[in-house]
Amino acid sequence: MSGDAGAFAPDAGRGLRLVFVRGLEVRALLGVHPHEQRAPQRVRIGIEAAVEDDAAPDRVGPDRLARVVDYGRLAEAARRVATEGHVRLAETLAERIALAVLADPRVRAARVTVEKPDAFADADSVGVTVERQRRRP
């Protein structure tokens, strides 16, 4: 998978589905400034996971949670990583969350966005998006 825009679209031919979490808000110690190191701030997280779809291209798989990547577990992992302790860079936090998402072997690639919506009074938010892929043997 390359970093092109289509990498995170469902694709039956490639056996992929898209699992996502959008707008997850946590309070986290994130940033390089002293006030960001002392008090948690609002952090918004978005996750996109390109996941193997075992029923693609033309079937419906068993209606069982165990056969899919659970977006609840993705959100739980992001919350855990974001609240483990102080992180200086949004990039580092996004990378750590992406690696936690890739811990499920069915995830081929993860795209994670970390936003700080309260960083500037005159901006909706600031942040970063990173992408990580599973290495093929």
Automatic annotation (TrEMBL):
InterPro entries: Dihydroneopterin_aldolase (IPR006156), FolB_dom (IPR006157), GTP-CH-I_C/QueF (IPR043133). Residues 19-132 form the Dihydroneopterin aldolase/epimerase domain. Belongs to the DHNA family. Pathway: Cofactor biosynthesis; tetrahydrofolate biosynthesis; 2-amino-4-hydroxy-6-hydroxymethyl-7,8-dihydropteridine diphosphate from 7,8-dihydroneopterin triphosphate: step 3/4. It comes from the Bacteria. It catalyses: 7,8-dihydroneopterin = 6-hydroxymethyl-7,8-dihydropterin + glycolaldehyde. The lineage of its organism: Bacteria, Pseudomonadati, Pseudomonadota, Alphaproteobacteria, Acetobacterales. It is an enzyme of class 4 (lyase). This is dihydroneopterin aldolase. Gene3D superfamilies: 3.30.1130.10.
